[in-house]
What does this fold into?
Amino acid sequence: LTGLPNMVTDKTVLLNNKTVEPDTGVIDASRDSKGMILHLQRFSTDDGPGIRTTVFFKGCPLSCMWCHNPESISIKPQIQWLENRCINCGTCIKTCPKNCLTKAEQGIIIDRKLCDGCGDCAENCPANAMELLGKKVTSDALFNELIKDRIFFEKSGGGVTLSGGEPLLQPDFSATLLNRLKGKEVNTAIDTCGLCSTAAIDKVLPLTDVVLFDLKEINSEKHRAFTGQHNQKILDNLLYIRDYILNEAQEKVLWIRSPLIPGATATPENIFELGAFIAKNLAGVAKRWELCAFNNLCRDKYRRLGIAWEYAGTPLMTKEMVGELEQCAKRSGVNSEIVFATGPTKIEDS
Amino acid sequence: MTTAIPEKPKYTIKEPKNLSHRIKWLRDYYFQGLNRKWNNEFTGWTTGTPWDFQFQEGQYYIVPETYAFFSTFTGAFKQTAKKVNLPADFWKWSLPERHAWFIKEVMVHYLPHEILPGDLIAGGRFNLQASTCLNKKEASRYRKMVYGKNGVRAAILWLHNHGYGNVGATSGHLIPDYEVLIQRGWEGIYQDIDHYYKALPDIEKTGKKGAQLRAMLTAATMAQDVALKYSQVCTDLASQELDADRKIELQNMAAMLKKIPWEPARTFWEAVQSLWLTHMLVMSDESYPGPGLSFGRIDQYLYPLWQKSINEGMDREFGKEILKCFWIHCNTVYDAMIRTGGNQGITSGFGQVVTLSGVGPDGKDMTNDLTYAMLEVIDELTPILEPKPNVRLHRNTPDRLHDKVIDMISSSQGAPFLINFDERSIAGMMLEAKKAGAERLINQNNVYDYAPVGCLENTMCGNDRSGTVDINLNLLKAVELALTGGYDLIPYTDLLTGKTESRRIYGPATGNAERFKTWEEFWNAYVVQTRYIVKKIAELYQRTDEIRAKFLPTPYLSCLVKGCAEKGKDINEGGAEISFTTVEAVTYGTTVDSLLAIKHLVFDKNICSMKDMMDALKANWSGFEVLQAQAINKAPKYGRDDDVADEMGKKVMELWTAETWKYKSRPTGKQFRPGMLSWNYWISDGYILPASPDGRPKGKFLSNAICPSNGADINGPTANVNSVGKVIGGKDPDGKGDWLEFYNLLPNGASHTITFNPSLIRDPEHRKKFKAFLRGYTENGGSCLQINMVNADMLRDAQKNPENYKHLLVRVTGYNAYFTAIGRELQNEIIARESHQI
It folds into this structure.
């Protein structure tokens, strides 16, 4: 992946006030669009069926309090400093055209108001301790990387997952990419938070084999409190996808994923009601409902991005807590065979 | 020889299971090590002449750790050797006849014959340091070739100390013709030798060929004479035995040992007994305990008798019980030096490989019930080291075998076996047939019967010795010589005397690289220096090959290798039908990365001058930390599925393998062939070779075999696999490779290790994905894979040495990061988690 300096006036989304603009329409194949991409992860075994390469998009319309990948929220490129790699040479400070880096006792300090993510420091850092999060990449370049694992996709029933961040915030790029992958008969998946325009779904869904759809909180007010947005549009989109699958493409696979967040979504009421919603609306269509236990291992990422994180001190859930919620889900009316609990739980003192 | 240094997990070690009282006792007794009353340590035997000696140091030229002890070993074995009474005309016989008679005399009349309680297989002591049986004149000629300023020993030390690698004609490392043994017995083998002897014209009968065949005829009767001794032991034990069942077992053994291994085996039990006695005597014949002496396709040639015995009423579990006894016997090789190594059999591997499954004619899968029975035996006995299994996978491997393989990986710390990949391996065998003009012996009608020796070194069975560990070449030396124009970058200092060599040119004078204007100039110098190091090592090898051929015959082993009787030639003289010697290239990844770093930093991006680079290397990067970081982090690397970097890898591979094919060993006629196996050299030679342009300082590990350099494969296992597949030869999309679409520039095969996180195989769904990964490896990867599962110890090591573990991905659902890029506190948490999971 090549980095592009000086970025990005992608106007599909305004992150400040979290509104989602309507899409412009059909795929414009004439321009080889560029996507704002965080990174690729090959040999992914937890992002859909089989062995997959996951493309992490940058930029998300939600800002969940517990987000595990905070570097994917902003669509703008960001710089982070990895202390373990730093050899203390000061190259970054000398290189920065805006003088936004300083050396302090605790390491390199990034003035995030000044930094525009040009990436010069990362380009020049001999130790890769300065890292540019988010690069503009052409679908060609991305496709050429993704297709390299085709044999592993074929042998495992896997393929490519667009995740993030939110791939549906960059629907034209996503569609272009998916279109090329379908041209090579690669299985495709999107991992979506569900908040996007209907037009975005219309572009991407026909090119997608598997939809991994997040359902976090059934109560809309709470949803807004946790993620910054109401859930109405998300639920509408889910039903829209359901209808599409039922009416036009029954071979498509829908998985629901729900994060279990202590003090937020991880309540028996919420899980029960999410289950009731799934049972009522998605019976036979949703092939899997994953309950993903809270994970605090990302607190380093927040620290490096200079963001205070409310969950930094929250411990992992116990096996019992996760087990109870799993039982709750199974009693909610959902076909209990589609319920799976994943993620880390607290290590008991032994 | 093993390829990987096994991880020694401190946490939960897999426990053996489903062991009968008999096997549990035998296994526990074995692991008592030095506390055992019985053991199989070396015993020394002499002809009693003042010039006699036992220790064949040439067998250990490829083990630099032993160099300092050669004189000690030689002296110690000589001092403790017991005299064997010789017949009056002994010294009138030829050397092979003396050798054959001597080994047989010791094994039949001197070494005790014992059977441990409950054991179903006879054949205890076999580790010898036997007299070389040289007469005075031969001994003096031998000494002249080995010792002194111009002797081969000094040349070997020079080669090692200057970082080229090491060479030596080494014992073991082949698959004797056990299939013929099982089918025809020693009787059949004897008849064949006798036939060739009788067919000799009289003049040749009295000559060298006649002597060799007479020696082989003597040797061919050894196994049965030893068996008769054990038969008597069984009879004696049976007469005193109170347990009725055991009494019957001993009586049965006494009866069978009167017939086999001379006669063909008629039952599965007889076959395994015959196999073991015959096998252990090869080690006696070579005075060499085991390494690489392999069994070949054991689940194929034993299968007819397995089936027959099962049909005749043998309980399948009893069949496994016989195998478990055989397995434990294989581990007694480690007793050879039992007093010097405390941890019996745990830390190393001798590599008596058993090959399981694999393809047959027309791509048919050959997995059978015995394959599964043997995997069960391994699973139930593990942890145990010998015999080392190598499971052959291919496009038509059944799901059931894949499942069993993955189950076993899941329940152990990594795979308790190596995995060989048939299509890639066979492409290499077809290439060597072409290169050596051996199509009559290796062709599409028999190539599927290849099997690995040692660990992954592919050979044919029963007629092939390919010297698979004889030559170990550090490719990186050529980069050093290309930089300096033929000089050592840092002159060698003798550790004992503290003397530093004066500056001398050893390689071709390609000129100081500081004056090169273009990358092509540097590449050309590298090509010239690669030619030089291959030639250098090939020439020195021939001296060790000549010494073995002249003075160290193994007539018993020669009986078991097709070609020797027909030619009237000892295997050590090149008697085998197929005779290669293999150059195993070490430091491949480090070499490719070093070339990439020079190209990128000096020529493409002008980040430093060649002088800066040379100064940095001479200073071991001290004072050049920024340049070192750039070399490590900014230059491209092999192992990332980066087509440009892998193209460099392919060029390096094509160059050194083409050079290797140019040579034959004159004393034996053996053709050199390429392979990649690094044993432990990639660790130890890291202290000899100076800093390298890829950013590695002196004292750090080199790359292992065909693996990318430590920490280079940051794009994960599939990218790593794709890179390996490309550089080993790639594929032809139209199916016009050397085998189907496949090419393999390394007929010997290449060692490839990948480490995974155990969470990858935590549940059936993920195991299925792992299975698919292996199916993908079959298509895109190399010839052989060792799978390690990361454990808490390794994570701790990663904390201490993050530069070696940049690729280590920690994955917990919804979150992923490279282990070394996260804070220490979190690392500790993940370590705690892993140690609970495993």
Q: What stands out?
A: The CA atoms of residues 621 and 628 of chain B lie 6 Å apart. Chain B touches chain A at residues 625-627, 629-630, 632-634, 641, 715-719, 722, 760, 766, 768-769, 772-773, 775-776, 779-780, 802, 810-817, 820-823, 826, 829-830, 832-833, 836 (CB under 8 Å). DSSP finds 30 helices and 18 strands in chain B. The mean pLDDT of chain B is 92.
